[in-house]
Amino acid sequence: MVSTVPAEALVPVLRQEPVAAAEAAPLAPRARLLPSLAAVYRAQLSRARVARMPLLFVATFQSVGIMIMMRGVVDGGDGEAARAVVAGSSVLVVAFVALNLLAQYFGSLRASGGLDTYATLPVPPASVVLGAAAAYASFTVPGAVVTAVAGSALFGLPLAHLWVLAAVIPLAGAALAGLGAALGLLAPRQELATLFGQMGMSAALLLGVLPASNLPAPIQWLRDLLPSTYGVEAFARSFDASPDWVAVLADLSVCAGVGVASLAVATWAYRRAATR
Amino acid sequence: MTAEAAAQAREAVCTVRDLVRTYPGGRGRSAPAAAVRANDGITFDVRRGEVFGILGPNGAGKSTLVRQLTGLLRPDSGTVDVLGHDLVRHPDRASRLIGYLGQDSSALDDLTVALAAETTGRLRGLDVRTARARRDEVLAELGLEELASRPIRRLSGGQRRLACFAAVLVGERPVLVLDEPTTGMDPVARRAVWAAVDRRRAERGTTVLLVTHNVIEAETVLDRVAVIDRGRVIACDTPAGLKALVAGEVRLDLVWREDPPLSVPEIAALEGRAQCSGRRWSLRMPHDQARAVVATVTGGPAFAALDDFTLATPSLEDVYLMLGGRGEGLVKQ
């Protein structure tokens, strides 16, 4: 059937929606998850050279300093206290960089409008969050290794199972970086992001470097709530001549679980912060 | 509607209708402050291949408008259509249609110029090899090769802006939204920006939305301009068309040595009509009146009080003032 609608009757429709009549232009492709994650990771790693070096040095210096200080009150040789100090100080580097610095980074990026740069690119939120978290976890590797080796030498602990750090750093890194990213992106103001990051690191410091058995029960519960604790425990167990690998694995699983959950929250928080 | 108008409407790349966005007022101690209407019913069309300007002083609502065009902010009401896509309903599509240069570069600041461009390309979905090839092309085009390995943070303001502009160009988009792209740039860098824009218009029909508060730039590079004040479009035309509104007038700027000589009756009569800022008076008036005023101020007691004067053809700033916009915040350089 031929249309009998007069041409004039179509005009208001055209006027209201001039473009709807035309075909929609093709959309450029989205960036895929893994390639864009790799691009973010690489870009973040390169930032370390420019901006992060002094802070990474401070992180290591702080941990080594704490061990030297504790050496004054803790006897050398293989004991619970020595293990706790060395393991706690090593994981403290991870807390300093992955939790504290990443919370500050995302807090400042959000406050300055820097998130717009990512939000106006077709990149999956998970790529931005995971790429940054992975990079910050990577920053901690040299500091954590240096601290662990220096601490083992200082307290006369065996280096045989130091390779455990290869699992502790990424998993504790995932948990703490996820927490740092989530705090940085959720904090309503930049100063609060900094504050939360600092407090998280302080908690890891105060509750991480002392042997748990000496702490009062409520403090122990608090300690059990910190994800960094499980990294510390896993690493401390590895100083045994024949470590309880099941317990190490269980500790690391907690880190992994917290990591997955906190990174998921961080990704959600990024999406929320990027489009207000 | 004529066939020509219909064709033009179909050529519209970006259609904005009745865009309203309010921000909640600050929470006062007793009662909440009134909400601020940052965009108050904004409507315009941008045609294919056009450099379309959004001109207004700081606080006019330009940034709010741009954030809605780029999918960063959801309007309270109204529509944004870009190339047939409803960006209010699908804000995520904006990044696949639009290359956006915002005012903040903090996400890229710690990267080298080359890595910022390459990373942006990869995050636009290019594979590594293509991203690097495009990066090299764009850095060469903009004359940034010598700065390629320098971190953006260590560059001057203008160079930093140019590096961020380079990143915007890696990974082609049919529409570019540039928020004050040439701030702080020297003339060489400005020319590089506009040459790159022109090349993309000529070769690919790229459409550009330019946010500016620089009237000279607006007059020289824009095809059409929407003048924005207090969240509304107060005029939308070509720069020449807008200047025709004040064609019969000239602008007279008087700078007094100290106090204006109000004892001269002709000068006293002008005081109410002048835009005064410090010792400077700005007046817009018909040619013959201006001649009379010039005669007055260049002789007698008025001349003794005069430090300097200029007579100029009107600019977009004069149009802006005539249309009732607030004078502050527009830049002439």
Automatic annotation (TrEMBL), chain A:
It is a multi-pass membrane protein. The chain crosses the membrane at residues 55-74, 86-107, 128-155, 161-185, 192-212, 245-270. It holds the Pfam family ABC2_membrane. One of its GO terms (cellular component) is membrane. Keywords: Membrane, Transmembrane, Transmembrane helix. It is found in: Membrane. The keyword Transmembrane applies. Its main location: membrane. Residues 49-236 form the ABC-2 type transporter transmembrane domain. GO terms for molecular function: ABC-type transporter activity. The keyword Membrane applies. This is Transporter. It comes from Wenjunlia tyrosinilytica. The lineage of its organism: Bacteria, Bacillati, Actinomycetota, Actinomycetes, Kitasatosporales.
From TrEMBL, chain B:
It is a peripheral membrane protein. The keyword Transport applies. CDD domains: ABC_subfamily_A. SUPFAM superfamilies: P-loop containing nucleoside triphosphate hydrolases (SSF52540). The keyword ATP-binding applies. GO terms for biological process: response to antibiotic. It is found in: Cell membrane. Keywords: Antibiotic resistance, ATP-binding, Nucleotide-binding, Transport. GO terms for cellular component: plasma membrane. GO terms for molecular function: ATP binding; ATP hydrolysis activity. Residues 14-255 form the ABC transporter domain. This is ABC transporter ATP-binding protein.
